[in-house]
Amino acid sequence: MALPQSAYKDRQFIAVIGDEDSVTGILLAGVGHITDPPDSQKNYLVVDNKTENTTIEGAFNSYTKERKDIAIVLINQHIADKIRATVDGYGEAFPSVLEIPSKDHPYDPEKDSVMKRVRKIFGE
């Protein structure tokens, strides 16, 4: 059954949670956006070794639950591993969550939450 148009009609941005190289590359592609003041919110979070897991989880929850203008959330897989329970627990259609590789961390399909759901559907 198709979702009603109200579930996705205002979703026009991509959010990114990733390391500096991944976020920079995606921002250079023109994805960056900051909402209007007074509560200016970015659609990206640069994560480094000092970034707390609570900050990552807060950004993920903001992009998936609070913001109604985000259509896709891109997150580096090694960062998704830090909040794996939250990422695996997310099951909504919009925004879609896609785990992407980074320069220093290769993609592992065994960890990907979308691939886990696909295997579950096909009974693997």
From TrEMBL:
Keywords: Hydrogen ion transport, Ion transport, Membrane, Transport, Vacuole. One of its GO terms (cellular component) is proton-transporting V-type ATPase, V1 domain. Subunit of the V1 complex of vacuolar(H+)-ATPase (V-ATPase), a multisubunit enzyme composed of a peripheral complex (V1) that hydrolyzes ATP and a membrane integral complex (V0) that translocates protons. V-ATPase is responsible for acidifying and maintaining the pH of intracellular compartments. Belongs to the V-ATPase F subunit family. This is V-type proton ATPase subunit F. GO terms for molecular function: proton-transporting ATPase activity, rotational mechanism. It holds the Pfam family ATP-synt_F. The keyword Transport applies. Its main location: membrane. V-ATPase is a heteromultimeric enzyme composed of a peripheral catalytic V1 complex (components A to H) attached to an integral membrane V0 proton pore complex (components: a, c, c', c'', d, e, f and VOA1). It is found in: Vacuole membrane. It is a peripheral membrane protein.
